[in-house]
User: What shape does this take?
Amino acid sequence: MNKKIFFLYFLFVLLLFFMGIYLNSQSKKASFAFVSPQIKKIYQTSPKETAVVKRVIDGDTIVLSDNRKVRYIGIDSPELHHPTKPIQCFATEAALLNTELVEGKTIVMQKDVSETDKYGRLLRYVWIGDVFVNNYLVEEGFARQETIPPDVAYATLFKESAKKARLQNKGLWSLCN
Assistant: This one.
């Protein structure tokens, strides 16, 4: 009898595990599925570049396999490696999620107006499959919206996602002031 109970328990735990993986993958896929036709048009009509992510620096910056650094446009994650500031609230979590999403994977990058920021990093919107990484980080509360003109193609989407994350008390909105 104990073997049957153990076996049923094991099957139940296994089922929960696979349900969690499935639900997690579905939530990431939803990141771009319900955006407006205008935003889809922006994505479809602008030039894109693929690259492999070598490593993640923090929640909004990555290094590509050719050693170029990329800063995600339109968002700002808490600081993890700032020369004069301590590690900010939720910085480690943002970096870990970014790592899970992109490190070692092929991404699609989309330029807006600016090529680089004042530090020489490429400014890009980043996609992994059908997941819009910039927006996913905002909508899950791992980054804030930060619109810096002239790079404003997805500013409305980021603003809506940030508002939703804040209202739902997600991520940094639940722990950080």
In short: Residues 26-30 have pLDDT under 50 and may be disordered. The longest helix spans residues 2-33. The CA atoms of residues 141 and 172 lie 5 Å apart.
